[in-house]
Amino acid sequence: MEILKIENLAKNFYLHNAKKEIHSCQNINFTLEQGQFIGIVGLSGAGKSTILKCIHRTYLASTGKITYQSEAFGEVELTTAPERQILFLRKNEIGYVSQFLNVMPRTTAREHVMNALLERGVDAAEAKEKAEAMLRYFRLPEPLWDLYPNTFSGGERLRLNLAHTMVKQPRLMLLDEPTASLDNKTKILVKDMLMQLKEKGTSMIGIFHDLEFMDGLCDKVFNISEGTFQ
């Protein structure tokens, strides 16, 4: 079943001070099937991250359509959907992992992962149990669980990002270089968890510079610089 369809997607940015328009991704077309993993590669600055941010609606596409088959709403056009609907989808169906951590002030690492489940209506005891299991899986040291993440290293923050998104087991997961600052042992943990989620039906789109990491994980690879699949 087709879960996501992107048609003629383009995103441009206007620099008001320089009175100049920057063209990011242009004429992007592909579909994602349920349970499929598509990797995106291409030159730096070609707009790989922009595609993910348009799907997540962090950026509003300049032109084109992004059609998502939602479990709650049926067919949703993500470029025009109401903000309330987008917020619901982010909480319940669409997960996003970036290199950068965004945590509410005065929220501990444990609370951050628990909140991903609590906002979906999961019981507090169950949320705590699952959050701790995920933190343990990604080898985030237990003494850090009740600390504020602004004190964490880059690798620790990225592991917390992964735990926060993956604990929800979203229907659609967007991964923007999720292994950028991780050691090889942690990369193996990430790959294993992605394979587990894929087997459970999670559909994924990911950007990776580590092409070896992508082997055996991606069903298709889309080269944004050439507009082709392999």
From TrEMBL:
GO terms for molecular function: ATP binding; ATP hydrolysis activity. Coiled coil: none annotated. PROSITE patterns: ABC_TRANSPORTER_2 (PS50893). Residues 4-230 form the ABC transporter domain. Gene3D superfamilies: P-loop containing nucleotide triphosphate hydrolases. The keyword ATP-binding applies. Keywords: ATP-binding, Nucleotide-binding. Pfam families: ABC_tran. PANTHER family: ALPHA-D-RIBOSE 1-METHYLPHOSPHONATE 5-TRIPHOSPHATE SYNTHASE SUBUNIT PHNL, LIPOPROTEIN-RELEASING SYSTEM ATP-BINDING PROTEIN LOLD. Belongs to the ABC transporter superfamily. This is Alpha-D-ribose 1-methylphosphonate 5-triphosphate synthase subunit PhnL. It comes from Anaerotignum lactatifermentans DSM 14214.
